[in-house]
Each structure stands twice: as C-alpha cells, then as structure tokens.
Amino acid sequence: MAFIERDIDEIKDELKERFILTSKILYGRELSELSQNEVYNAVAAVVKQYTTENWIKTNKQYAINDNKQIYYFSIEFLLGRLLNTNLINLDLKNALKIVLKELDVKLDDIYNEEPDAGLGNGGLGRLAACFIDSMASLSLPAHGCGLRYQYGLFEQKIINGTQIEIPDNWLRDGYAWEFRKPNKAVNVRIGGHAYMKEVPGEENLQLVYEGYTDIMAVPYDVPVIGYKNTTVNTLRLWNAEVNMDFSDYGTLTQEEINQRQEYRRWVNRITEYLYPDDRLSDGKKLRLLQEYFFVSAGVQSIIRHFMRTHDNVYDLSDKIGIHINDTHPATAVPEMMRILVDDYGLEWEDAWDITTQTCAYTNHTILPEALEKWDVGLFKEMLPRIYMIVEEINRRFLEGIRKKYPGDEALVRELSIIENGQVHMARLAVVGSYSVNGVAKIHSDILKTSTLKYFYKVFPRKFNNKTNGITHRRWLISANNDLAHLIDDKLTREWRQNIKLLKKINNYVDDPDFLKAIKKVKRARKRDLAKYVLSHNKVRVKIDSIFDIQVKRIHSYKRQLMNILHIMYQYNRLKNDPDYDMPVPVVYFFGGKAAPGYYTAKETIRLINAVADKINNDESINGKIKVIFLENFGVSLGEMVYPAADVSEQISTASKEASGTGNMKFMMNGAITLGTMDGANVEIHEQVGDDNCVIFGLRADEVISYYENGNYNAWDEYNTNENVRTVMNQLTDGTYGNFQTLFDYLINSNDEFFILKDFNAYIEAHEEIVRRYQDQDAWLRSSAVNIANSGIFSSDRTITEYAEDIWDIEPVEIK
Ligand code: 26V
Predict the structure, then answer these.
(1) Domain span at residue 428?
(2) Which reaction does it catalyse (predicted)?
(3) Considering only CA atoms, which residue is closest to atom 9 of ligand 1?
(4) CA dihedral 545, 546, 551, 555 (to 10 degrees)
(5) How many independent structural domains does the chain possess?
(6) For residues 447 and 462, what is the distance between their CA atoms, to the nearest angstrom?
(7) Which atom of ligand 1 is least distant from the CA of 125?
(8) Residues 182-233: pLDDT tens digits?
(9) Choosing from 443, 522, 552, 593, which is the catalytic residue?
(10) Is 106 considered catalytic here?
(11) pLDDT tens for each residue of 668-692
(12) Domain final position from 466, 492, 509
C-alpha cells in the first residue's frame, strides 16, 4: 500500500473528532480544562491512532515475506522529542495545526511539554536515533534494541559558572510513545556458579549453572515511523523488573520479606540510570549488568521468535542480523553461543558459524585507552556462564592463530580476548563478527593501521568503512523548515525522499535571489537563538555578529580549552593593541556536558563562564566579542542552535575524533566548518574544497608521529610562543580567577592534545574566517555550497550502505 498524501480538508474533521474524544477518554474533562501537558498527551495519543494500523501491518508483512530483519543493538538511543518529526512523517502536521487553532490551542506551545528522551550521552546515542529513523524511512526491515533508563543523562545547570548535575526524571509524567509488552517478557540470569560436571556413563561433560538470580526483562516498544511511507518499525527498550510471586507474603518471616525487598531494590537499579560517558573511568559492575541485561533479553527474544516460526536453525543468519553498536553489546556473541549450545543443543562449531554470520560490529572510539575492558574477576562473578564461553571462544581462536603463525607469541598476546586479567570487548566483537567498520574514512584507516592493526592482519576482509550520517528529516526539514522550503522551491519536494537530489542546489549557488533568501533564513534562526540567549543568559547579542559555535560533550581531545584560550587572546589584543580591530563582531557559543567526575572538563566550563562574565560586561570593547555558554545542551536545544550558526567549530586533535556528527548538522544548515583534518571533517573538506571551509592545524600523521617519537615538549612551546605564554599566564594571575589546575593539566600532560602547538594556526584560521565573512556575497555562496553538498551526510546514505554491504537487506513494501 503506497502512502497516500493526506487531503487536509478531508482529514481535518476526523482529526478534530478524534482529538476531542481522546482528551475526554484520557482525562474525563472538557478540553478547555486541560493543562498544556494533558493537551500534549492527548495529541500524542491521537498520533498513535494513526500509527498502530501500519505498525501491525509492517510486522505482518515481515512475517509473510519471511525476509531478513536487522536488530541494531545499542546501549544508547538519544531520541530527543518525537511529536514534530512523527507529525511530519505521518503528514499530519498541517491539518493538526489548523484543528488545534480552531480549538484555541497553539501547536508550537505544546512541543515543549514532551520530555526530551535523553537516553544517550552524545554522538553514539544520537547516531543510533538517526539510524532507526533512516531504516524506517527507507522501508528497511530493521529495528532498535536498547535500555529503558528511568533516568536519562543528567540535566546540566550552571550555577556560579560551575556545572551542577540534576537527575533527569524524564518519565515523571509518563512517556506517550511507549507500549509496555508484559507478555513478551523474558528472564535474564545473573551471577551464581557455572561449571562442567562428569556424568557417569556419559561421554560429554554436563553443564551445571546454579545459584543465579533471575531478572525479568519487560519490553517497552516505541514505534519508529517512516517518512511518508507505510513502514513502522520497532525500537524495543528493555526494563528490569522483579520476577516474583508475592501471594505468599503472609507466610514469610520478616527476614525473608527484607531479603525480597533488598532484591527488589537491586533489580530496580539495573535500568535506573544511564552512565555518563567518562571514557577513561573504570568499568562499574552495574554497567556490565546493563550491557548483558539488554543483550540477553534481546537475543533471547529474537531467537525464540525465530525458532517458533522456522524449523531449521541453520537458516538463522539468513533471517536475522545483529548489529553491535560499539562494544557495549559485544556479549551478544557469547550470548548467542550460550543459547544455541546450551538451550538448543547445537555443536560448538555449528553454533559458531551461525553466530559469526549473524553479528556485525561498529567501532566508535579511537583512543586506545578508552576501549572497553572488564576485569576477569568481576566478569566471572556477574556472568559465569558467559565467561566460560568467552574463554572457549578465545581458546579456539588462539589455537587457530598459533597454527597459522607458529611461534609468534607476541601476536597471540595482542589478539587474545583475555589478556592481563581483563576481557577485551573490542577483541571479542571483532572475533565474533563477520564485519567490522569504522565511522569515517580516516577513522577506518586508523583502525587498520593502528588501533586494531593485528586484527586487520588476520581478518583483512572483515574491515570496512561506513561514514556516519544524520537524518535530514530532523536536522533540516524539522529544525529548519524555512530552509527546507527554499530547497523545495528549487527542486520540488522530491529531495526529501531522495537526498541525492540535494546536490542539484549547486545549480543555484550563484543565484543572487536564492542567496538572499538563504541569508534571510539564517538571520531568522540567529534571531531565534539571540532571543533565547537574552531570556536564558540575560545577554544581548547582535545578529550581525558572526555566530561561532562549538556544541558537543566537553572533552580534552575536543579542545574547547583551545577555543576559550583563543578568545582570551583576541580580547587581549582588542584591549592592548591599538592596531588591532575586529571589523565584524563575533559571538562565541559553547554548549555541552562534562562527565560529573571529569575534573578538567568541569574546570573548562568554569573557565568559559569566567571569561564570558568578564568580556560580556566590559563596555570598553563595544560588544565586539560576546561569549555564551548554553546550559544543558541536548537534542532539542541543538535543533535551535545548528540552524543559527555561521561558523562550525570542529577542532579536535587530528586522529582523535572518530567521525563527529554535529559537523554534519552544521554543514547541512549552511555553516562554514572551521576545523582540523579529523573524523568526517576530512570528508566535508573533500565535498566543498578549501574555498568553502577553513582547515588548520597538525595532520593526523604528524600527531601520531609526535606520540611515537616523543619529540614534542609543551614547555618549549610555552617559552617560545608569546601568544601561548600570555594566555597561559592569565590562567593563574587572577585575570579570570584561579585556573591553576588547567595550567598544570596542560604542562603535566605535556599538552597531550597539542592545544599549544596548534594555537597560532588556530588564530590564523579565525582571521581567515573574518576575512571571508566580510565579503558577504562570497560567504553566502559558500554557505549554499555547504548545504548543496551535505546530502552525502544524510544517514539515508549511510544506512543504504549498511543495508547493501553489511546486512544484505532490501526495502520491503508494506501492502
Ligand atoms: C563510553 C562510556 C564509558 C563509560 C561509561 C559510559 C560510556 C558511554 C559511552 C561511551 C562511548 C562513547 C563513544 C562515542 O560516543 N563515540 C562517538 O561516536 C560518534 C558516532 O559514531 C562519533 O561521531 C564520535 O566521533 C565518537 O566520539
């Protein structure tokens, strides 16, 4: 059944009727008596009515076709809000707007009532959310599988310039888009003891697994609605619940009751909260439990369903694909082995063939020290049976390696899944998967030559690249509808479903009317942001300024510190150098959360706010520089921020940012990238050329060579570079307060991310930006070139590549 464009007049009356009825059913009151939040919930309930029919049909169609289905396992899905994108995808937005207006409700006012589903930290979680959007929009049979955290990533408050973390109780008023499915619950076993026992008269040893604890995993399904098609896939989020019959409470002793209460508290903690990404932190027990919990629940339910509907277990990998998003779900490999061997009685070799033809893995982290590892003691204690299986996988794997590379024990050590008392999750994922990919070209190359080079040596054919992407439906059509309409005017609306067509905007980059229209939209978005900043930060910013924006998690390698040091430098010159002028004022925006235990990151936030405080209140500089820290940056704030940017700061130390995806959101909204040759910046540069982005700084090979040769010295840089020395000294001389720890960090780490080394190049890059901005016609052209060539960074392109090269699935028409 093809998607039928809705006739507004036809659907209006039906929508209105349903909306009035639904509000009464939900709340037992007249519409006029409902709070904004209740109105929002009623609207969401009506939207669901337009979803369920196709949801059921989609699942039936997949069953009838018996096509392969992909399950994208991810410990994070950073969804943000769904109302607007769901309305757009279902083509209900315009009709609903009219209906609500007739009822005196403004649709724009109720969006904010939806909690921002923050079930992710940053790039990795948002990528998963963009991916499931593309899967549904491309009519692909592919679903998400993750965790239903009771608390998402903390809410950030800035108090006296310092980050304070507030628990994110996002489920307080309920979540409109989820469907609890208690009948699909499964049990997950944790802890206890597992061993092999001899049985008299039997040749094979027998597995004993005893003393474990059962945790009930209950799925909450969220429909994933395709853009103007009839596909509705499923995002299945697992919740940990107690699995116990309480009817015998009357007969229990007080001690037994206490024990059960303790058990209940323990179980509730498993899906209680999302861990903040502090990449270097030690693995915590509960985190490993979270990982195995959703993996076991997911794999069990997938295989159970498969076995019910098929009779040949060997067909499994033809019908199911499991995608391991970073190493967090890597226990999918031993969990599949456990189910096939223990529960279905398969021979090890057969189970291994099936498993390794089912699983595929994506790496998202270059920093070798941030690769996930677990202490054997903890792993064994929590997951004893899984540990036995990992040992056996490793034993057989290394046996093969020793045969192929006799005598190369050094190689064996580099490859061993268990090494130095730790389980290496990336190694487990690579060994257990048929495909291993990085997330940008340069990243995939570094995996092959450095991070995973020994694995590349033994499994060269597994390695491939899939450059990340973002959904243009949220980040362009929904977040910047005016810009989307400008594109419609030139290309018709076809580009929305076939993003390759966006390239045709290149035909208009010299059309003065088009550029004028782009400028008008950019100014409107800048005005929106300026208004927000006036009310939230109580700072007035001029929209004629360059809006220079860095929004992303705060991390040393992303170098927010270099950004703020440069602002200090610029401010010094403005104050002290009579020959220096800033022909265009600049507003520097920062946004991003620091992990609660990450001291350097939190001090960086404090420095940004101290500098902002001083500069914003210095009337002598005539507002030439303003500095704004955007509190609590997340998906929803991003939807306002990306469209308002002139300059996109992508300044990570070359080789450190696997890809980045914010860079793509900025580009698609017409910002010029000011960046290093890192992650997907390299490919942005490839798309637009030197004239339409500003590249600076050390290249990845230079960075790597400094590390290898140890021939860089931060003190030398400090001593010989006056620009560096001046701002460094200001960290401790009281200009902005006391930031001795940041000074010490830079020196003691020997400037591990080359902030000082790249400082002069960064100054020049900013000067280049200002030069270019002064030629507004050329700048606007550049902006248009960026928009025109951003289509390749749509996640529709990325997911098409996954579907064709890794998953081997095709679109399914839902009849
Ligand atoms: C690590 C940890 C470790 C401690 C516990 C919590 C936690 C949560 C997440 C992570 C790993 C985060 C990895 C990540 O987000 N990588 C980013 O992935 C993006 C999508 O591929 C990519 O664009 C970014 O460059 C990369 O940093």
Answers:
(1) 277-466
(2) [(1->4)-alpha-D-glucosyl](n) + phosphate = [(1->4)-alpha-D-glucosyl](n-1) + alpha-D-glucose 1-phosphate
(3) 277
(4) -110
(5) 2
(6) 12
(7) 15
(8) 999 999 999 999 999 999 988 888 999 999 999 999 999 999 999 999 999 9
(9) 552
(10) no
(11) 999 999 999 999 999 999 999 999 9
(12) 466
